Amino acid sequence: MRLRALAKINLALDVLGKREDGYHDVRMIMQTISMYDVLEIEKAGTPGIHLSVNLPFIPTDERNLVYQAAKLLMDEFDIKEGVKIHLEKFIPVAAGMAGGSSDAAAAFVGINRIFRLGLREEELMERAVKVGADVPYCIMRGTALAEGIGEVLTRLDPLPDCGILIGKPAVNVSTKQAYGNLRLDDSAWRRPDIDGMIRDIQEKDLYSMISKMENVFEPGIIREYPVIRDIKNQMEENGALKAMMSGSGPTVFGIFDDSKKLENAAQVLRSSGIARTVFATNVYNVG
């Protein structure tokens, strides 16, 4: 079985406050894009989970979310057979694009199918939150409002077709680091108009929606890594309607309404050398 684990971007990201359990309440609009890792799953002749990855620095044991997802279902349903999983990574690691969460989501789907467990999407999502807050969304895919710690999901209308340019610099940012740099009481921090964006998405008004996009993590991360601002500026100077950091960063995405401008901007960004990963793609809508 061969499955695609799709990356996501955050069209809006707001942090509402810290909870008693130490997590933060967030409000985000998530969007799947056509950039993906590949998961190959097959039954194995020996018991256990046999995981391999194309990148040597990624763990293949209980530290890996794919392993955790497979183990959760196999333990719950007392599966004695073994499974062989190979993960081919293309989504940048520690990039704010939910690569690890999407890999885990693909593992949930794959184990459910290969062992014929019969779980519906909603039932998989209920289990997926035990592995990570973004994993239920990565099972759902498409355009969605995420609330709570990211696990309370409301499906939104599909985003109008548009091009997406991905640019990730040669730095990594942890979620802990992003929260440490957050200063919501600072007037320089601009917050997204998420309710307005939802209306714009319903009305298929891409341009109005873009004007309301913000990521509250962005100012703090840019202060530490100015190259993120350089990538944003370069995208917007070359035709992006808007460029913004995704998730906790440091990946930048630009939204384009013209494929030629997208291709040109990708070439300019590659030539500049300021981004290690440059990838031109489009939004992925469910259905």
Can you describe what's shown?
- It is a single chain.
- The chain has ten helices and ten strands.
- It is α+β, with helices and mostly antiparallel strands.
- Strands 1, 2, 3, 4, 5 and 6 form a six-stranded mixed beta sheet that branches.
- α1 (65-76) runs parallel beside α2 (99-114).
- It is globular, with a radius of gyration of 19 Å.
- The two termini are 21 Å apart.
Architecture blueprint of SSEs:
Elements: E1 2-18, E2 24-44, E3 49-53, H1 65-76, E4 82-88, H2 99-114, H3 121-128, H4 135-140, E5 143-147, E6 152-155, E7 163-168, H5 175-180, H6 194-202, H7 206-211, H8 218-224, H9 227-237, E8 242-245, E9 252-256, H10 259-272, E10 277-282
Parallel strand pairs: 3-4
Antiparallel strand pairs: 1-2, 2-4, 2-5, 5-6, 7-9, 7-10, 8-9
Question: Helix tally?
Answer: 10
Strand content: 25-35%
Instruction: Please give the largest β-sheet.
Output: 6 strands, mixed
Low-confidence runs: none
What does the average pLDDT come to? 95
User: What is the overall silhouette?
Assistant: globular
Count the strands?
10
**Helical content band:** 25-40%
The N- and C-terminal alpha carbons lie at a distance of 21 Å
Gyration radius (Cα, Å) is 19 Å
Structural class: alpha+beta
Succession of helices and strands: EEEHEHHHEEEHHHHHEEHE
Short description:
This protein has 287 residues and is an alpha+beta fold.
